[in-house]
Design brief:
The protein is elongated, with a radius of gyration of 22 Å. Helix 1 crosses helix 3 and helix 6 packs across helix 8. Strand 12 and strand 13 form a beta hairpin. The N and C termini lie far apart (67 Å). It folds into three domains: 62 residues, Winged helix-like DNA-binding domain superfamily/Winged helix DNA-binding domain (Arc Repressor Mutant, subunit A); 206 residues, BirA Bifunctional Protein, domain 2 (2-Layer Sandwich), CATH 3.30.930.10; 42 residues, SH3 type barrels (Roll). The chain contains nine helices and 14 strands. The structure holds biotin.
């Protein structure tokens, strides 16, 4: 009888969700969750405050109606189909950057697959020292802690693996034709819908851990983007024409990611290359490559098994391992 209301609320949700069409008598639920009717009523009220909706019949029996699109750990867990990715969830309303917290937690020993997620980031970080626009509740701002036992030189490829998993997931769950822009972007119709920031802690020949940070624009309307991103960024809502469930999107992405990551750890990038190339928006195109102060124009021709972009310029094939690429 001494259980916490929060734990009872989670059990109660489980019972109601298992048969959403059925009305349940509160005393029956109380018996199932080993608590008292009054505590179950308190738990229900708490769930309503969190955004859950229930319906009562004339005999005060209750049934589940809907869950909020909020990144509560138990709500993420409810949608997850993975084995180890996302099985430890650190969720905040606001963080400076999920990558920064994930990096600190990984340093302290957080297990592989841990995800850090926030409703908003106040200092979201992008590649090349840029910021990442992370408004509250409109996107998915998350970081995954990984502990692959692969040489550090292979690990930057995790960015393209992640972009590919996300593109596959967006296609499978929302029928969107998402494309991968080497090395780490996900685009729809040429506009950026997601970005990936992979950060590595390594010694010379051994990686300690990797943090893969993923920012997905989900439910922004055009006016939600600041002026400097208009015409460059898009959201899943803008592309599908309707509000997108963030939890379903996160679960679809983490499942696709887990499959590709397991394969990557076993056999490297090679077996994943066909899927990556199929969705790559650069191959066969003339591109502008910016590396530091240097800019070159070339044709993107392939992605090599070590993750480099191969470009052709004046008959010569060059390997590109870093930098910014734009289609001309
Ligand atoms: C880029 O395209 O420049 C990469 C953007 C990566 C943004 C994500 S949002 C979650 C995680 N936390 C951060 O601070 N950055 C990454």
């Amino acid at each position: 009888m001494g259980r916490k209301v929060g734990d009872i609320a989670i059990d109660l949700l489980g019972i109601l969700r298992r048969s959403p069409a059925k009305y349940h008598a509160i005393p029956d639920i109380a018996a199932k969750v080993e608590s008292r009717t009054r505590i179950v009523n308190d738990a229900l009220r708490g769930l309503v405050v969190w955004g859950y909706r229930f319906e009562f019949d004339s005999s005060s029996r209750v049934r589940f109606v809907s869950a909020p699109d909020s990144i509560f750990p138990h709500e993420i867990d409810h949608h997850l189909k993975t084995k180890f990715i996302g099985r430890n969830i650190i969720s905040y309303f606001s963080l400076p950057s999920t990558n920064t917290l994930a990096f600190n937690l990984a340093t302290e020993g957080a297990p592989e697959g841990t995800i850090v997620i926030a409703e908003k980031q106040t200092e979201g970080r992008g590649r090349l020292g840029r910021g990442w626009f992370s408004p509250p509740k409109l996107g998915l701002w998350t970081s995954i802690i990984l502990r692959p036992t692969l040489p550090p030189s292979e690990l930057p490829s995790l960015s393209i693996v992640t972009a590919s998993a996300l593109a596959e997931a967006l296609h499978a769950s929302l029928k969107l034709d998402a494309e991968i822009k080497w090395p780490n972007d996900c685009l729809i119709d040429g506009l950026k819908v997601a970005g990936i920031l992979t950060e590595l802690s390594a010694e010379l020949d051994k990686a300690n851990f990797v943090v893969v940070g993923v920012g997905i624009n989900v439910n922004q309307s055009a006016r939600d983007f600041p002026p400097h991103l208009r015409g460059k960024a898009t959201s899943l809502k803008l592309e599908t024409g309707s509000q997108v469930n963030r939890l379903e999107t996160l679960a679809a992405f983490l499942l696709a990611f887990e499959k590709m990551y397991v394969e990557f750890k076993k056999s490297g990038l090679r077996p994943l290359l066909p899927a990556i190339k199929k969705r790559s928006c650069l191959l066969g195109k003339n591109v502008r490559l910016k590396q530091g102060n240097k800019t070159i124009i070339a044709k993107a021709v392939d992605i090599s098994p070590d993750g480099a972009l191969l470009v052709k310029r004046r008959g010569e094939v060059l390997r590109v391992t870093a930098g910014e690429v734009t289609v001309i």
